[in-house]
Amino acid sequence: xxxxxxRCLFGIVLCYALGTVWFMGxxxxxxxxxxxxxxxxxxxxxACKGACAFAVGTAVERRLLKGAAR
Length: 70
Fold this sequence. Notes:
- The chain is an all-alpha fold.
- Helix content is 90%, strand content 0%.
């Protein structure tokens, strides 16, 4: 479901944004440095985890709907 993907993407971007602003405030680092420390190292692993969670969630939803139709 594309709507679910968009909501998940919005959530992770919001977490990255708030965490980066917090990190900048605490450490006094620039935006570029904060992104290098707090965002870029985690984008690929988070994308992989999100894709796995979406695949599992979709499979579970299909299975539940199939069982409910019996």
